[in-house]
Specification:
Elements (H helix, E strand, L loop, with lengths): L13 E3 L3 H10 L4 E3 L4 H11 L11 H5 L4 H5 L7 E4 L5 H5 L22 E6 L2 H14 L4 E7 L8 H10 L2 E8 L4 E8 L7
Parallel strand pairs: 1-2, 3-4, 4-5
Antiparallel strand pairs: 5-7, 6-7
Helix pairs in contact: 6-7
Length: about 200
């Protein structure tokens, strides 16, 4: 965002620590940014201020332009060889999810209470009662899975983006990502809200 705004592009960017894979992803998008460990922050700040404005800054393409090229599986965080719990899904859910990475990446679990926790859980909701069931179930498993609530666009069934967010918040879930699966279905990714005891 900073690089996308003309009058902010000259501001040096320093990324401190971070998971190696995420650092590499950022480095690929912003190769002129500085990357430092916490102990080397002073040196990185000195370098950033001394070199500010000496070279043109890299301006990456808008985030949404990069995001729209991703498949549904990529948006949902489905990885090759990993299973996915699919709850209360419509009959055509394989077409909604599209191509999945690798062989056997999708393990459909259609019963209400799967015995195992899967890396990704997709809970389709069709009405307010189903939304309550989803929030209750996902609250119990959210720390161990990517917990998605998926609803049909439009408010004809009484489920909207706001009602999904508000209902899940009542169960201690906060959303941190949203995506469109196709022209009919949207999804929101939730995590358990941290409490004072968790911090």
């Amino acid at each position: 965002m900073l690089r996308g705004v003309k009058h902010c592009r000259h501001i040096p960017l320093i990324f401190v620590d971070g998971a190696p894979d995420k650092v590499e992803n950022v480095r690929a998008v912003l190769p002129d940014a500085l990357f430092a460990r916490c102990g080397g922050l002073a040196g990185a700040l000195q370098k950033a201020t001394s070199e500010a404005g000496t070279e043109p800054m890299v301006v990456p393409p808008p985030f949404m332009d990069r995001y729209k090229e991703r498949t549904v599986a990529q948006k949902l965080g489905v990885e090759a060889g990993k299973s996915v719990a699919v709850l209360d899904a419509p009959p055509d859910y394989p077409a909604i999810l599209g191509d999945l990475p690798g062989e056997g990446a999708l393990e459909a679990v259609v019963e209400e209470d799967p015995a195992d926790i899967h890396p990704v859980t997709l809970y389709f909701v069709h009405d307010p009662e189903g939304l309550l069931r989803a929030a209750r179930r996902l609250r119990a498993i959210a720390p161990r899975t990517k917990a998605w609530v998926i609803w049909r666009k439009g408010a004809a069934n009484g489920v909207t983006q706001n009602s999904v967010r508000e209902t899940c918040l009542e169960f201690g879930l906060v959303d941190y990502k949203i995506c469109a699966l196709d022209g009919r279905w949207s999804g929101m990714l939730f995590a358990r809200r941290k409490t004072g005891a968790d911090q």
